[in-house]
Amino acid sequence: MLALTFATGVVDAVGYLRLDQVFAGNMTGNVVILGMAATGGTGLPVLGPVMALVFFLVGAAAAGRVLRTAAPGWGHRCTGLLGGVGLVLAATALGLAVTGPGTPAARASMASALALAMGAQAATARHLAVKDVTTVVVTSTLTGLAADSPLGAARGQGARRRVAAVTLITAGAAAGAALCQVHEGLAVAAAALAVLAVTGLGHASARSPTTWRPRPNR
User: Fold this and answer.
1) In sequence order, which ranges of the chain are alpha helices (DSSP H)?
2) pLDDT higher than threshold 50 for residue 196
3) CA dihedral for 125, 52, 138, 17, sign (positive or negative)
4) For residue 42, how many other CB atoms are within 10 A of its CB?
5) Cα 55 from chain centre
6) What distance lies between CA 50 and its chain's CA centroid?
7) pLDDT at 158 over 70
8) Going by C-beta distance under 8 Å and a sequence separation of 6 or more, which residues neighbour residue 48?
9) Can you give the pLDDT at residue 214?
10) What sign has the CA pseudo-torsion 99, 104, 110, 114?
11) C-alpha 118: how far from its chain's center?
């Protein structure tokens, strides 16, 4: 899940820097942009954020439908969904490599494809339920980190995981921005490779036999 968080950082960097300031994973950003645009904010995108919101919801709803009767934990459906996310990212990377960002409509379409993938990823992560790692946003993670810190409730719960999630989405955004200087398609391809690697490792881990033996009575 932390690796998927890194991939989200890469994808959002591409969306913001190359696809008209559209967030593919962070829907809060799109809602804020649309709110400012609706009250007269000049130069702010509208088509891209609207399409990204719609396709994110479509991806999340589709994944939720697939997983609604799935058992908790990683199963074949999680493998299929995350594999699909990786393939959509790979296809988008190929499209960017062949055509580039192109027209505003083309950029909105590319951002929509990325948002579709991120919606499915977010819903799959929600099913896997790794605490404090949604893979697409870190606001709640930062809230928990601060609230449970020694300056807050001093619970000290999950601090390492929360710090890792924030660090990795930041690192992903930095990596995405750096790769965009070479080509935006390369950045999305890197995210696709990360998601496909996670898919393979998760599937292999779920299939590995686990032997449980009861402790002897003493």
Assistant:
1) 2-18, 27-38, 47-67, 76-99, 104-128, 139-147, 159-180, 184-207
2) yes
3) positive
4) 6
5) 13
6) 18
7) yes
8) 19, 20, 21, 22, 104, 107, 108, 111
9) 47
10) positive
11) 5
